[in-house]
Design a protein that fits this description.
Shape: globular
Largest sheet: 7 strands, mixed
Structural class: alpha/beta
Number of helices: 10
Strand content: 15-25%
Radius of gyration: 18 Å
Distance between the termini: 25 Å
Oligomer: single chain
Helix content: 40-55%
Length: 274
């Protein structure tokens, strides 16, 4: 996240708490999800730029796959979380972690081009999503990959969530705890009903560990508090990046869902990004 306003969620504090749960199992899940989305078995010899690194889990996953990793985040606590994760699981690595903003042109120009530019659930929290997407695309090397996830546009529902999130970040701690309790109960009931239906239909019910190695509790806080908040449809993302010389390689959508759509684009080898 980038714009410094009072209406801004403190993502980093949530990520510092999440580190207590990180173990080899979660790291393995992050590695697997990264390999599947990028369509690679390893990243040896490639550079990996993590925009808005948060907890640092996926920077660590890229490091485990052999990449030379450079991570940055606007939130000082997220930078601290990533640095702590590095000290826990990759203390001897050359993994770079620093504070920076994707909206800071002077800073982004200093980063150079990278083989993989990764930004999961970040660019829509900057307060200037389309500017952030454009800035991220400029950091992709020829033949490189851009892996981003952006909140799905649900129309009116997304507009309602915008107001919920803004109210959350403007509230005091007691009110925020009430928000969390209320929505935990709401999502918990909805999830319980879904599990009952799945079991009745013979469908396997997933474990409490999130598919990417994340935590349901921390994801809930991230979702309710995540402000600034912008959304986009898959068509909008595709059209913007195709016009900038990118080809869509991977797409994972959530039809009607309130989470993120995931995209992997490849930059053409010929010519600059327009």
């Amino acid at each position: 996240m980038d714009k410094t306003t009072k209406d801004r969620f403190a993502f980093g504090a949530n990520w510092l708490s999440f580190l207590e749960l990180v173990d080899e199992g979660r790291i393995d899940m992050a590695v697997t999800s990264l390999k599947e989305a990028l369509g690679v078995s390893d990243l040896s010899g490639r550079t990996f730029l993590d925009i808005g690194c948060g907890s640092g889990l996926f920077s660590l996953a890229a490091h485990r796959l052999g990449a030379r990793v450079h991570s940055f985040d606007f939130d000082a606590h997220s930078v601290a979380a990533s640095a702590k994760l590095r000290s826990m699981f990759a203390p001897e690595s050359a993994w770079i972690i620093e504070r920076g903003s994707i909206l800071d042109e002077a800073y982004t120009q200093s980063l150079g081009l990278h083989d993989v530019v990764y930004s999961w659930g970040v660019l829509h929290h900057t307060g200037a999503m389309w500017q952030a997407i454009e800035a991220a695309s400029r950091l992709v090397a020829p033949n490189g990959l851009l892996y981003i996830s952006i909140y799905n546009d649900q129309g009116l529902t997304s507009r309602l969530w915008w107001h919920v999130k803004r109210r959350y970040v403007q509230s005091g701690r007691i009110s925020q705890r009430q928000f969390i309790r209320a929505f935990r109960a709401y999502f918990g009931l909805r999830g319980a009903l879904a599990r009952v239906v799945k079991r009745a239909c013979g469908v396997e019910v997933p474990s409490a560990v999130r598919p990417r190695g994340m935590s349901a509790r921390h994801d809930l806080i991230d979702w309710i508090g995540g402000f600034p908040f912008e959304v986009a449809s898959p068509g909008e993302i595709f059209n913007v990046l195709r016009a900038r010389g990118f080809e869509l390689l991977y797409l994972k959508t959530l039809p009607g869902g309130h989470g993120c759509n995931e995209y992997v684009f490849a930059r053409a080898s010929d010519g600059p990004i327009c």
